[in-house]
Design brief:
The chain is an alpha+beta fold and 235 residues long. It has a single domain, classed as Class II aldolase/adducin N-terminal domain (L-fuculose-1-phosphate Aldolase, 3-Layer(aba) Sandwich). 41% of the residues lie in helices and 12% in strands. The protein is built from 8 helices and 7 strands. It has a 7-stranded antiparallel beta sheet, sandwiched between helices. A hairpin with a 4-residue loop joins β3 and β4. The longest helix has 24 residues.
Length: 235
């Protein structure tokens, strides 16, 4: 029963990416994890969103072996697994090729925090990974993509930035649930677009001050958060 609920949550997260215009055709994928059961539910590879049902969502173990489902899981499954291993609080992962966030990834540039919209969700610039070597691409590419994300965040320390740009590829986002991961992907695309236009208006634009950045992030996410209503996980 719990896995059926997770499958529906993952389907809903995938469809949210479509509703928000973050994916084209079969691009992108979202997943969710049941950590107590060691199970991951993820979009099947190459299946059109408009025909997909909850039963099409593939369930695997933490090693990527299919344990329930007739379809092949997303080819990005191994990347999702490494993200789940690195971030124990992550309950969902969303991967898109959304236009503006992907443009920053292709430019191999992190997204600076120019304003408070960015600061509300990401406690720092959205970072970009190093490029994979030819050997990493040729052998176990998807897992090595996840390991590049892991290495990046190991170097950054305990930062609260539930998103990353994979150099030359596209963004991955995560959150407490599949829905939260999709939500963060939508916000990431919005701030990526605003950052692009900010630089177009003023090439010498400066990042938001650390004081204001901290204020906006911590009023939503800190121990003394006061934005929104009590009990609301998104506050």
């Amino acid at each position: 029963m719990l896995l059926q609920i997770l499958r529906q949550e993952v389907l809903d997260a995938n469809l949210e990416l479509v509703r928000r215009g973050l994916v084209l055709y079969t691009f992108g994928n979202a997943s969710g994890i049941a950590r107590d059961q060691g199970r991951i539910a993820i979009k099947p590879s190459g299946v059109p969103y408009d025909t997909m049902s909850a039963q099409d969502i593939v369930v695997t173990d933490m090693n990527g072996r299919v344990v329930d489902g007739k379809l092949r899981p997303s080819s990005d499954l191994a990347t999702h697994i490494e993200i789940y291993k690195r971030f124990p609080d992550a309950g969902g992962v969303a991967h898109t090729h959304s236009e503006f966030a992907t443009a920053w990834a292709q430019a191999r540039r992190p997204i600076p925090c120019f304003g408070t919209t960015h600061a509300d969700y990401f406690h720092g610039e959205v970072p970009v990974t190093s490029e994979l070597t030819a050997e990493e691409i040729a052998t176990d590419y998807e897992r090595n993509t996840g390991l590049a994300i892991t290495r990046l965040f190991d170097g950054l320390g305990d930062v609260k930035i539930p998103a990353v740009l994979v150099a030359g590829h596209a963004p991955f986002c995560w959150g407490a649930t599949p829905s939260d991961a999709a939500h963060n992907a939508v916000i990431l695309e919005s701030v990526a677009r605003m950052a692009y236009f900010t630089i177009g208006i003023a090439t010498d634009a400066s990042p938001l001050s650390r004081t204001l950045h901290d204020k906006h992030f911590l009023r939503k996410h800190g121990n003394q958060a006061y934005y929104g209503q009590a009990g609301d996980p998104k506050r």
